[in-house]
Write a structure and sequence with these properties.
Elements: H1 7-23, E1 30-34, H2 39-45, E2 49-53, H3 64-87, E3 92-94, H4 100-109, E4 114-118, H5 125-130, E5 136-139, E6 153-155, H6 171-178, E7 185-190, H7 197-205, H8 207-212, E8 215-220, H9 223-233, E9 241-244, H10 250-256, E10 259-262, H11 266-275, E11 279-281, H12 291-300, E12 306-307, H13 313-325, H14 328-338, H15 346-357
Helix pairs in contact: 1-15, 3-4, 6-10, 7-13
Length: 362
């Protein structure tokens, strides 16, 4: 298995691996990642062995690092070939990220069947490059035949964390956990583990508006912005405006939210559809091929979410959030339109496809 660079690639890979282990406890699973990337830490923490390749990405501007890329690619493909020879896999799985290219390319050239899992509504470069050789391509959005051969596509949705599958009964527990008033409405803001500059600046500017409207706030800032956010939020402590650098219990955070502000990464969008929370999506403008805007528009076009551009956060974000949280009919419309977009057993469905390619009979 290979997927890395960001949590958006690593988490689905680990979820699929966990599901394979549930179905076939004796299955042997080896991960292949990129040296120095977060998968080299996160995958062993999830209980799996990982081998690193020396691969790195291409910079968008001309740099010396780009001159090294062809050599690193050749090295990585050769190392991937030796891993495939030694491990002798029945099947390989790629969920995106630098290392999945060399691994799947090496494996398919040695007649090992490959499955690709594409999280986004706009396919990544690596997965597009690998599509011709893949046996099966699992996707989370309709209309992906513009990137991949139609006959190989299977609509499965994205694997999401298990603990958020039903949060409807956790509202009271969540309010106690976060120290909130059950009689007030709550806005949840999530920008990913590293935070989101545009979102954080927009929320920081609008704290007084939230306080004036009697809206509680759980503001997940990421590590970089946390100290500043803590200072900004401290005058509003009595109004239950709380800044945190990281949320360990996302199930409880979703349970207490009356509305959510979030980036539009594939995993975040999939989770929001499952928990069915009215959302304002703020796509990361620097995401590859602007795929977060494409993810957001897949919901916006079905009246299932509201989009605010990163550059408009300071002037619009909090005003839009207040309007949404106080408009029950709009909230209901967004939630009802989100529900059909949710896929509930994606990891299990994908794991069964992987086992089929490995010619394992369940």
């Amino acid at each position: 298995m290979s997927g890395g660079g960001t949590g958006g690639h690593i988490f689905p890979a680990v979820s699929i691996a966990n599901e394979i282990k549930k179905l076939v406890p004796e299955a042997e699973i080896l991960f292949v990642g990129a040296l120095g990337k977060m998968e080299m830490e996160k995958v062993p923490a999830a209980g799996y062995k990982i081998i690193g390749l020396p691969i790195a990405g291409i910079q968008r501007k001309l740099t010396l690092a780009n001159l090294k890329f062809p050599f690193l690619l050749i090295q990585s493909v050769l190392k991937a070939r030796s891993i495939v020879k030694e491990f002798k896999p029945d099947v390989v799985v790629g969920t995106g990220g630098y290392a999945s290219g060399p691994l799947l390319r090496a494996a398919t050239s040695m007649d090992v069947p490959a499955l690709i899992q594409e999280q986004n509504s706009y396919a990544g470069v690596t997965n597009k490059w690998l599509a011709k050789k893949a046996a099966k391509i699992c996707v989370a959005y309709e209309g992906m035949e513009k990137f991949f051969p139609k006959e190989k596509i299977m609509l499965t949705g994205n694997p999401v964390r298990q603990d958020i599958k039903d949060v409807s009964h956790l509202r009271e527990e969540g309010q106690k956990f976060f120290g909130l008033n059950p009689n007030q409405k709550t806005l949840l803001v999530i920008g990913g583990s590293l935070g989101a500059k545009g979102i954080n600046e927009g929320i920081g500017e609008g704290l007084q508006i939230l306080a004036d409207n009697n809206i509680q706030l759980i503001w997940q800032t990421g590590k970089v912005y946390f100290e500043k956010a803590k200072q900004q939020a401290s005058p509003y402590e009595t109004k239950n405006i709380k800044a945190v650098d990281f949320i360990s219990r996302m199930d409880l955070a979703y349970a207490i939210a009356d509305a959510v502000v979030s980036r539009a990464g594939a995993g975040a969008v999939s989770e929001l559809c499952i928990v069915k929370k009215a959302s304002i999506l703020v796509p990361l403008p620097t995401a590859a091929e602007d795929h977060q805007t494409q993810n957001a528009m897949a919901l916006v076009n079905k009246k299932a979410a509201i989009l605010v551009k990163d550059t408009e956060c300071k002037e619009k974000l909090v005003k839009e959030a207040v309007t949404l949280i106080n408009n029950e009919s709009l909230k209901r419309e967004l939630e009802n339109n989100m529900a059909p977009l949710a896929y509930h057993n994606s990891a299990n469905v994908i794991a069964k496809e992987v086992l089929k390619l490995a010619k394992y009979n369940l």
